[in-house]
Amino acid sequence: MNILLLSSLASAALAAGQTHKTDCQHLTAPNVPGATVLSINGTERWNYTVPALRPFLLSPVSGLNFCDVTVLLTHAGAKDQVTVKVWLPLQDWNGRFQANGGSAYAAGEFDLTLGPTVKAGYSSSSTDAGVGFNPETPSPWALKADGSVDFDALINFSYRSIHDMAVVGKELTAQFYGTKPKYSYWNGCSTGGRQGMVAAQRYPDLFDGISVGAPAINWAKYVLAEQWPQVIMQQEQTFPSSCELKFFSDTAIAECDGLDGVKDRIINDPEKCHYTPYQSVGQEVDCDGKKVTITKSAATVVANALQGPVDTSGRPLWYGLNAGAPLDSLVNTTAAVNGTLAGYPFFVNDEWIKYFVVRNPDYNTLEINATTFVDLFWKSYIDYDSTIGTDEADLSSFHQHGGKLLMWQGLSDQLIFPGGTVDYRTRVERLMGGRHKTNDFFRLFFAPGVDHCGFGSTIGAIPDDPFGALVNWVEHGKAPDSIPATVNDEAKAKRIVCAYPQRAEYIGGDVNSAASFRCA
Ligand SMILES: *[C@@H]1O[C@H](CO)[C@@H](O)[C@H](O)[C@H]1NC(C)=O
Ligand SMILES: *[C@@H]1O[C@H](CO)[C@@H](O)[C@H](O)[C@H]1NC(C)=O
Ligand SMILES: *[C@@H]1O[C@H](CO)[C@@H](O)[C@H](O)[C@H]1NC(C)=O
Ligand SMILES: *[C@@H]1O[C@H](CO)[C@@H](O)[C@H](O)[C@H]1NC(C)=O
Ligand SMILES: *[C@@H]1O[C@H](CO)[C@@H](O)[C@H](O)[C@H]1NC(C)=O
Ligand SMILES: *[C@@H]1O[C@H](CO)[C@@H](O)[C@H](O)[C@H]1NC(C)=O
C-alpha cells in the first residue's frame, strides 16, 4: 500500500471517528427479519478496561472508548430473550465490522473478544443466542420440563443466532457512523470456529472474510470421540497419571522431533512419526520420586487416544490425537482421598452425552463400554449432525459471493482432532473441483506442536496474525501461502506455517529465523 493511500485512509478513519452520525444514546432498534427488538440501550464508555482472563485473554485491554450497545431480541410467538452486544469505537473506527464467536457451550465471549476487536478499530458484536452465558454446561437450556431436548434452543445456539447477531451488528454500525462497514468479518476459535463455518455453510453472504481456528465442526462425531479414552480406561481398569501421560507425549516428541532436521521439541509432521506407545512398555518413569513402570494396559489406553474410536469389528469411527499432543485433557483422571485414580471425562463430551444423547443429567458416562459407545456415537450423529454437525462441504454459495475462508489449527490440539479437519477439507476439495479451486477461497494452515486455539500449553509455532492475513487476502487479493509464526518458548524463534497440504521445510541457516524455512 502506498503512503498516500495509507494517510488518506487514516484521515478518513479519524474523520469518521470524530463525527459519528448518531449519538450512542439515540440509536434506534435495528430491523432483524423474524425477530422483534425488545430494547436497545447505548452507553458511552471512556477509558474502559477488559481484565485479562487466561487462557482467552492473556493481558488486559485498556484505554477503550466505545459506544456499548445492548440489544434484547425475541422471536415471534416465543418467550425467548436473546442478548446481542455491539461495541462501536467512539474514535478511529477502521471502517470494518468483525463479529466474534464463543467457546464450548457459550455462543459468545462478550468482553473478552469485543475488547481486543474494538482496540483494533473494528465495530464488533457477540451474542448469547438466547441460552445465557455458561461455557461449561448446557444444563440450563438443553432439556425441556418434560425431559425432551429443546431443539429450538439447540438450533439457536448452533446456527440461528449467528445470523441475527451479524444483522444487528452491521445495522447498528451503519446507523452509528452513517455508512455501512466496507468489509465484514467473522473471527472465532473452537465453538467460535464452528460458528464461522456455520456462516460459510448457511449464511454465505454475511461475511467477506471468515477466520476460523480449531473449528468444532463434525461436532456430533468428534465430541463422542473425545469420550473414547475414558471408555478404554474403564475397560482396562487402568488410569495413567498425568506424569505417565507426559512421559508418553515427551517420548513421542523426542523420537520424532528431529525428523525434519531441526531439534526444537516440535513434531513437524505427525504423520511421519511412527512412535507407538507399546514401545514404552516396561520402561521406568520417575513420578514425584516414585518409580512407575509403564504397563501394557497404560500403552493400550494411550494408543487408543492416538488412534481414535473403533466399532466392535475394529473399523475406525473417528480420528485420534496426534503423537506429542497433551493427553491429560481426554485421558484425564482424578484422585480419590486414598490416592486411587479414577476416570474424569472432559466436560464437553460428558455434558453432551448426558444432556443430548442419553437425555439424563444423572447418567454416568464412565459406564459406557466399547459396545454401548458405538450405539451412542451413531445416536449422536443421527440425532444431531444436521443441527450442530456443521460439516456441510458445499461452500459454493460462499465462494460465489466472493467470500474468503482462512482456517488454522494446532497439530497438538488436545481436544479437537486435526484428522477431522483434514477430513472436512478433503470433502470440500472433492465437491468444489479440487485443491486448486478450493484454494481460491479456502486456505487451511496447520501449526506443528501448537495446542487448542494456540492457548500456549505446548511448544509450537503459533501463527502471529491469521486474521490479518485474511484481511489482506479479502482487501488486497493477496492469498496467503504462508503465515509468520512464533515458537512458544523462551527463544521466541520465528517460523512460518504453510497452506495445506504444504509444510514448512528447513532449508538451512539459523533455526530461529523464518527465512530458514520454505513451504514444500
Ligand atoms: C442502560 O445501560 C446502562 C449501563 O449499563 C444502565 O446503567 C442502564 O440502567 C440501562 N438502561 C436501561 C433502560 O436498561
Ligand atoms: C485510564 O484508566 C487508567 C486505569 O486503567 C488510569 O491509570 C488512567 O489514568 C486513565 N486515564 C484517563 C485519561 O482517565
Ligand atoms: C429459539 O428461536 C426461536 C425462533 O427463532 C424461538 O421460537 C425459540 O423460543 C428460541 N428458543 C430459545 C430457547 O431461545
Ligand atoms: C482433569 O481432572 C481434574 C480432576 O482431577 C480437573 O480438575 C481438571 O479440570 C481436568 N482437566 C480437564 C482439561 O478436563
Ligand atoms: C480408594 O477409594 C475409592 C473411591 O473412594 C475406592 O473405590 C477404592 O476401593 C479405594 N482403594 C483402596 C485401595 O482403598
Ligand atoms: C456394556 O454395557 C451394556 C449396558 O450396560 C451391557 O448390557 C453389556 O453387557 C456391556 N458389554 C460388555 C462387553 O461389557
TrEMBL record:
<keyword id="KW-0719">Serine esterase</keyword>
<dbReference type="InterPro" id="IPR029058">
    <property type="entry name" value="AB_hydrolase_fold"/>
</dbReference>
<keyword id="KW-1015">Disulfide bond</keyword>
<comment type="similarity">
    <text>Belongs to the tannase family.</text>
</comment>
<feature type="signal peptide">
    <location>
        <begin position="1"/>
        <end position="15"/>
    </location>
</feature>
<dbReference type="GO" id="GO:0030600">
    <property type="term" value="F:feruloyl esterase activity"/>
</dbReference>
<keyword id="KW-0479">Metal-binding</keyword>
<dbReference type="GO" id="GO:0046872">
    <property type="term" value="F:metal ion binding"/>
</dbReference>
<dbReference type="InterPro" id="IPR011118">
    <property type="entry name" value="Tannase/feruloyl_esterase"/>
</dbReference>
<keyword id="KW-0106">Calcium</keyword>
<dbReference type="Pfam" id="PF07519">
    <property type="entry name" value="Tannase"/>
</dbReference>
<protein>
    <recommendedName>
        <fullName>Carboxylic ester hydrolase</fullName>
        <ecNumber>3.1.1.-</ecNumber>
    </recommendedName>
</protein>
<keyword id="KW-0378">Hydrolase</keyword>
<keyword id="KW-0732">Signal</keyword>
